[in-house]
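ok trying again, last paste got cut off:
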Amino acid sequence: KFPMHLQNPLINYFQQLQTLKKSRLLEEFHMDKALPLLYRFAHPQTGRIVRAITYKADFEVIYADGHIEVVDIKGFLTPEFKIKAKMFMFRYQIPLVLLKWSAASKKFVEV
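nice, full thing came through this time. structure:
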């Protein structure tokens, strides 16, 4: 059985990122980064305000060589997430890495 602090995949991934940062393989990382997908706007004909759509990523990782990845830890992919993921990839043109914790292999695997 895993120690309690490893049972939460977000904490486990956070610790992996801290290790990478100490080894200088990554520059920095941010948790719960809110990224706008569609800004709030007024409908041109009705004037009605349409709410913004944001995507809240688990981690934004900036590597030492300058490239950026956005990482999300998922148990399963909801229909809403699938739409937001497509909007994110179109708007930002940076990799969106989807991971889940595999208890069998004791590591993160791509979804």
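cool. The chain is about 25% helix and 40% strand. Helices lie at 9-22, 79-92.
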